[in-house]
Design brief:
With about 100 residues, this protein is of the alpha+beta class. It is built from 1 helix and 6 strands.
């Protein structure tokens, strides 16, 4: 019974909800950490992160839109105390 009630609420909730009238189309951020120490080592490293998010709304009619887009993320850091810096790229599936 509880499973059916939760399923019903999940299906009816979008019809009863309100949303903001705008969406951020482009979000870009960059951050850099101070000295970050490795575990069991005296060596330090810095971590820099570049993050971007693009949102692409597809308007179906006056009240309905499909919101899609993608994220892109680069992290630059040392993976081990005496290694060179590595760049890790992250691009998840569509929203």
């Amino acid at each position: 019974m509880l499973k059916k009630l939760l399923s019903f609420l999940f299906l009816i909730a979008p019809l009863l909800s309100n949303a903001q009238e705008y969406v951020d189309l482009l979000n870009i951020s960059y951050s850099k950490s101070g000295d970050t120490s490795f575990e069991n080592s005296a060596k330090n490293t810095t971590i820099s992160i570049f993050d971007s998010k693009v949102t692409l709304p597809i308007v179906l009619n006056e009240k309905t839109a499909i919101i899609t887009g993608f994220d892109f993320n680069i992290k630059k850091l040392q993976l081990f105390p005496y290694s060179n810096y590595s760049e890790l790229y992250y691009t998840p599936a569509l929203n």
